[in-house]
Design brief:
InterPro entries: DUF247_pln. By secondary structure, the protein is mainly α. 55% of the residues lie in helices and 6% in strands. The protein folds into 3 domains: 3-145, no CATH class; 163-318, no CATH class; 332-361.
Length: 365
């Protein structure tokens, strides 16, 4: 494309994107009430079309540079130097794509709403993920997923020297990259999974044999969303972005956890995975295919410290024995009754044996 053609394309596409952002702020009501579109408009009045457009706009290859959108909005508002307001609009517009049904934390939502309602770029500085320079809307959406607050677990000191001397990035597959064992194997070692109540789906914790995983919602657009987020991180591996490979790390961690439909079923029963797909096997296949041939260094992940804790607990034999005892003898009330009865009979037998032996060596006079 020639320079003028490219400029015209950027103006037309950028104006359309801004119109979407502004009209969709209150569930699409502004298209008719404030922007003057017909209630039968084939684009702005059709919820199905809006869903398809939203999914298309999040693709990596469809991104418009954010500075172009900032400049166009600045010209409309009479303030060409403004920056940041488009990012706030983008977070609200792409919110339905969030892979979680947990609400935003109250402080984050109040900051976001204040930045949108005031219409001033300075207000966006209060919302942590939008305070730095950003490339495009996919970058904005990713930062809103990884917004500041609870910090990822840093790699333990024991791994720092390994990262320093190796400097190698490996292809993520099950032979060479393994955060943790799958759910079925972890359960055999006495490690349980529990839902963690937070809207940060990537913020996984481990404490005293319990792996606390936030809830994640899987639907027909989840695979495309994660593939584009991972592709973006792969394209910018060496730039100083917040949480440089957090989405990739999370996807590989979940791939390690899930090996079969049984693993998905267990996580679903624990309230960790909610999906709208056809079967649990489809969810397992989704996570197992997300990171094929992805370049990844396990030592450069925010989950490396957590995986060390889980693996140390897994390797402890006592945990495995206790888990086996609970699974085999305390899995249901009848098994517990039989165990208690067996122990009681054993104690009676031992007591009888003791008194028989005692009376033999110490007969009564």
């Amino acid at each position: 494309m020639q320079g003028n053609e490219l400029a015209e394309c950027m103006v037309l596409d950028g104006t359309f994107v801004l119109e979407l952002f502004r009209g969709a702020l209150d569930g699409g009501k502004r298209f008719v009430d404030d922007l003057g579109y017909s209630r039968h408009d084939p684009i702005f009045a059709m919820r199905g079309a809006m869903h398809a457009i939203r999914n298309d706009m999040i693709l990596l290859e469809n991104q418009i540079p954010l500075f172009v959108l900032d400049l166009l909005l600045g010209l409309q508002l009479g303030n060409p130097e403004q920056t940041g307001l488009v990012a706030s609009f983008a977070v609200r517009f792409f919110d339905p794509l969030m892979p979680t049904d947990e609400p935003l934390l109250r402080k984050d939502r109040s900051k976001l709403e204040s930045s949108v309602s005031t219409g001033e770029a300075a207000a966006t500085a209060a919302f942590d993920p939008l305070s730095g320079p950003m490339l495009h809307c996919l970058d904005v959406f990713r930062r809103s997923l990884l917004r500041a607050g609870l910090q990822p677990t840093p790699p333990p000191p024991a791994r720092l020297w390994l990262k320093k001397w190796s400097g190698l990035r490996r292809v993520a597959d099950k032979r060479r990259q393994q955060f943790v064992h799958c759910v079925s194997e972890l359960r055999e070692a006495g490690i349980r999974c529990r839902r963690r109540n937070t809207d940060r789906f990537w913020d996984i914790k481990f404490d005293n044999g319990v792996l606390q995983i936030p809830r994640i919602l899987i639907h027909d657009g989840t695979k495309s969303l994660f593939l584009n987020l991972i592709a973006f991180e792969q394209c910018h591996m060496d730039i100083a972005t917040p949480g440089g490979n957090n989405i990739t790390s999370y996807a590989i961690f979940m791939d390690n956890l899930i090996n079969s439909a049984d693993d998905v079923r267990y996580l679903h029963d624990r309230g960790i995975i909610e999906h709208w797909l056809g079967s649990d096997a489809e969810v397992a296949d989704l996570f197992n295919r997300l990171c094929l041939e992805v370049v990844f260094d396990i030592n450069d992940s925010y989950l490396s410290g957590l995986s060390d804790q889980v693996n140390r607990y897994y390797d402890h034999k006592w945990s495995t024995w206790v888990a086996s005892l609970k699974h085999n003898y305390f899995s249901n009330p009848w098994a517990i009754v039989s165990v208690v009865a067996g122990v009681f009979l054993l104690l009676l037998t031992m007591t009888q044996t003791f008194y028989s032996t005692y009376s033999y060596y110490r007969p009564m006079k």
